[in-house]
Amino acid sequence: MTRRVLAAGFAALALPTIALAQDGDLLGEGEQIFETNCAQCHQSDGEGLPPNFPALAGNDRLSDPSLIVQRVHYGLKSMPAFPDFGPRDLAAVASYVRTSWGNDFGTVDESQAEELLASVEPPEQVATRTIWDGVFTEDQAQGARLLYQGGCAPCHGSRLNGAPDTADMSPAPPLAGTAYMRSWNGSTVGSLFEFTRSSMPISNPGQFTDQQYIDIIAYMLSYHGAPAGDEPLPPDLDVLNDIVIEPEEE
Questions:
Q1: Is 48 exposed, middle or buried (0-12, 13-18, 19+ CB in 10 A)?
Q2: Which of 48, 54, 64, 215 is 20 to 30 A away from residue 17, measured at CA?
């Protein structure tokens, strides 16, 4: 995912026309970040996919910029964290969602985002287990191998390394290994499940049942090296949001 954007703009004392141009640049950057990282769940029109992904259009909670910074930086339940976003990224995406789809909450500048980033604390998380606690069964994981090979490997590769099996496909993000763990570190399996079933396969989202999606996730976790346990991973958000994705402790 491309999360870096352009450098900071002009000083606050710049001419009004320049300030307006700066705001335009910020909103353009915010739109790019949103479309790349957020639109698959919250939708390009801001209407979301309730109840799992709330609408941002007309959402009064966006009036609090600290809440936006907190949720984007730390994530919460079904929303993944984006800890690599810097103040400029946060200002851009916050400004975009606060001023799009009829919202009129105003923009957030980079210095304000930097102050908020330094002051916000992680939200209360209810997760008590990690992927290293045996959250799926071996039968579940291996039973999904053919599902993965048919629906995912053409883009993500048989070895889950992002090298597509189909020659004319562009490389896709890896689904195991260091890069995968870095992308989802601190998020819940519920977040991964919601993202996967709402956006994958990219050519036909939703082609599998909820059970098949969670079985594929069990296969991915197993391939990454997470241990199997005695109970299968269920397609139940209450359970999945209780399981955190994180690197194995050394």
A1: middle
A2: 64
